[in-house]
Amino acid sequence: MSLPFIELENVSLSYNGSERLEDMAIHEVNLTIEKGSFTAVVGPSGCGKSTMMKLLSGLQAPTLGYVFMNNREVSGPVSGIGMAFQKSTLLAWRNILDNILLPFEVSPDYEYSYRRDKAKFVKKALALLDKVGLKGYEKHFPWELSGGMQQRASICRALVHEPSLLILDEPFGALDSFTREELWMMLRDLQAEQKFTVLLVTHDLEEAAFLADDIYVMSTRPGRIIHEEKVTFERPRSIDIRYEPKFTHLVQELRGHIKAAKEAA
Ligand code: ADP
């Protein structure tokens, strides 16, 4: 039995601090993320997916309700989180290795250990690059890499300090479909091996169905959880699962929930 790692209890958030329903970006959200699990939040644009991400990382406090991590209320920015976004956000003037080492340079947690034992951290970064198929690219600059390779490097940077939670906000949204599938498989394998907890925000229902253990579907603004789906497909999942009836059925069902919520809005 897995432990609850993150819990949102009746969380509502308005960006102007008002408690009126019409001002809420998300409304009365309840959500549980278990340690080591892969959770996806899906929903139409503007439904509050990124807002959820900010709440979970402590970057935004709820207007109403509570956010707990490891049974403690979150009251400010949480450490031990890795994040990657649709745009790779790699620093153009740093090579790939130096980009990946950035979390060690900026985090006070590594202030001494990084300076004392840099070789150990470099080794770790190189091992991760190897795992995501970027061996030999460490001295290249971001602009020398394709979009897919840049996203691989971004995910390495988000994972190098072994965060307890990896938050991914539409990480593959800007990639072509072949590259996107390659990155789904990369993420599937990394998570199976390293067992970190993932929260993936996406509007791609196939992506959610392929990768996640739990899928939360959100309504249009104010964002509410309108459906929770436990994905019971066996792991490891082959990419060809997408052509199996059980998979297409799940994606259709999720699409139906989103369509119904849009029509009700
Ligand atoms: P999504 O990620 O699903 O597209 P967001 O969480 O970005 O949705 O936004 C949810 C709602 O909150 C939207 O109506 C958006 O306009 C609003 N919103 C997001 N960020 C801010 C902000 N910083 N200030 C005011 N409103 C915001």
What does this structure look like?
The structure is a single chain. By secondary structure, the protein is of the alpha/beta class. Helix content is 36%, strand content 23%. The chain is built from 9 helices and 10 strands. It has helices at residues 49-56, 96-100, 102-106, 111-116, 118-131, 147-159, 177-194, 205-211, 245-264; strands at 4-14, 24-34, 38-42, 64-69, 72-73, 81-85, 165-169, 197-202, 214-218, 225-230. The strands form 2 sheets. A 6-stranded mixed β-sheet has the order 6-7-8-3-9-10, with helices on both faces. A 4-stranded antiparallel β-sheet has the order 2-1-4-5, with helices on one face. A hairpin with a 2-residue loop joins β4 and β5 (72-73). α8 (205-211) packs across α9 (245-264). The longest helix is centred in the C-terminal third of the chain and has 20 residues, at 245-264. It is globular. The relative contact order is 0.18. Bound molecules: adenosine-5'-diphosphate.
Can you describe this structure in just a few lines?
The protein is an alpha/beta fold and 265 residues long. Helices cover 36% and strands 23% of the residues. Strand 7, helix 7 and strand 8 (197-202) form a beta-alpha-beta unit.
Please outline the helices and strands.
Elements: E1 4-14, E2 24-34, E3 38-42, H1 49-56, E4 64-69, E5 72-73, E6 81-85, H2 96-100, H3 102-106, H4 111-116, H5 118-131, H6 147-159, E7 165-169, H7 177-194, E8 197-202, H8 205-211, E9 214-218, E10 225-230, H9 245-264
Parallel strand pairs: 3-8, 3-9, 6-7, 7-8
Antiparallel strand pairs: 1-2, 1-4, 4-5, 9-10
The structure holds adenosine-5'-diphosphate.
